[in-house]
Design a protein that fits this description.
Helix content is 21%, strand content 19%. It is of the alpha+beta class.
């Protein structure tokens, strides 16, 4: 990984960011020889529309999903 002093990074920031974008290689920014930051290329942006409908045809509904699971007679909230 390429290391660049922070003073050089400040002077060439835009060019270095463009270099990381093009080459996909990270750069380590140092101060007095110690790492203070790493500039890494962005991760791939995932298309959100790709997951819509992706489970179609993979789920099977068994039984009645509309009616209550228990009889209304068993509901404590309905008792007087």
């Amino acid at each position: 990984m390429e290391e660049i002093p922070i003073s050089e990074f400040k002077a060439k920031c835009q060019a270095l960011l463009e270099q990381v974008r093009k080459t996909k290689k990270p750069i380590r920014v140092t101060r007095h020889g110690k790492a203070v930051a790493e500039v890494v290329p962005p991760s791939a942006v995932q298309d959100r529309s790709a997951w819509i409908g992706s489970m179609k045809g993979k789920i099977e509904i068994l039984g009645d999903i509309i009616s209550p699971a228990a009889d209304e007679d068993e509901w404590e909230a309905l008792r007087d």
